[in-house]
């Protein structure tokens, strides 16, 4: 005759065995699923993607327009001409771009020039820290991207980003996109999510350079900042460059040749 | 039984209401699987048909996480064939008829997935 102590031992072990038996097939299946995914053979791999913009080469509105429309057309970014505008890459003046530069009397051509701005894909991204759902995250190759499926539209990231690189969809963006002009190979966004530049991570995955780099005709250089032999590092070694708001410690990955 | 004249009608009413879904639908038509438009190209889907019908939502969910978070944008199917992970560029290339493929089944099952709030519908409909 078993006593209570023995009964509890047997009952406990049986429960454990049953739970394990039920969980194992599921775990094995999940492990099997992982094996069926891999990155593409032609995908560009980098330790820390970065960009150098030669601001001297952007001397006409057409050059800005080529870069901006290449990005916005491909990524289905709506053109909204109000405070509710959505932008991935845009331009502004010297004092608006480099607010940390305290020079009162910059050189005339520097002052008159316009400057391209986009998400800086920071090493210490404030937007990632504040995101309550981890919809925004920093990939292993340094690109700060968003999972729009997970964005709840709280806009903490917009408040956190010191560069204004994030836009909120106050309205359905498709109201501002001609159906025929939609790029059917890329999604739009929906009302109530935040969006921003992706460093064209979807193109890097198939071995292509970002669209702004392609459209800039050499004025923007893209590459791996961790690789001393890369194009960006060569350009950085040969030119004096500055970054936007370096005092904040976010460590932007976008550099500007002045 | 104390208060039996109130309790018994109450119990009967409860049983009738609780089982209402069963006997109300006893004589109605049985559920018929909708005739969905399979792609004309005739090629095989990424996985067997039964698996896709039952598990496509879980598959797409995993696809999203793998492509966006794990940077793995190639799916190796059970038959060993490789597919680019993309709803718009892989699935909808063959399944270009959203109205007669996706919607028919989703409507008859009263599910309303929000894929198309962002992903662009295939042009095959227009």
Overview of this structure, please?
The complex is a heterodimer of chains A (258) and B (126). Chain A has 258 residues and is of the alpha+beta class. Chain A has one domain (49-257): Alpha-Beta Plaits. Chain A is built from nine helices and eleven strands. A four-stranded mixed sheet of chain A has the order 9-2-11-10. In chain A, strands 3-4 form a two-stranded antiparallel sheet. Chain B has one domain (4-125). Helix content of chain B is 46%, strand content 5%. Chain B has helices at 4-18, 20-24, 49-68, 87-94, 99-108; strands at residues 74-76, 82-84. Chain B has a two-stranded antiparallel ribbon with strand order 1-2. The longest helix of chain B is centred in the middle third of the chain and has 20 residues, at 49-68. The radius of gyration of chain B is 23 Å and the shape is elongated. At the A-B interface, strand 1 of A face helix 3 and strand 1 of B. Strand 1 (37-38) of chain A pairs antiparallel with strand 1 (74-76) of chain B, so a sheet runs across the interface.
- Fold-level CATH name of chain A: Alpha-Beta Plaits
What is the N-to-C succession of helices and strands of chain B?
Answer: HHHEEHH
The computed structural class of chain A is alpha+beta
Span of the ends, CA to CA of chain A:
89 Å
Q: Specify the CATH architecture of chain A.
A: 2-Layer Sandwich
Q: Uncertain regions of chain B: pLDDT < 50 for 5+ in a row?
A: none
The total of beta strands of chain B comes to 2
Q: Percent of residues of chain B in beta strands?
A: under 5%
Total domain count of chain B: 1
Low-pLDDT ranges of chain A: none
Helix percentage of chain B? 40-55%
Largest sheet of chain A: 4 strands, mixed
Counting structural domains of chain A, the number is 1
Contiguous helical run count of chain B: 5
* End-to-end separation of chain B: 69 Å
The CATH first-level class of chain A comes to Alpha Beta
* Biggest β-sheet: strands ordered side by side in the sheet of chain B: 1-2
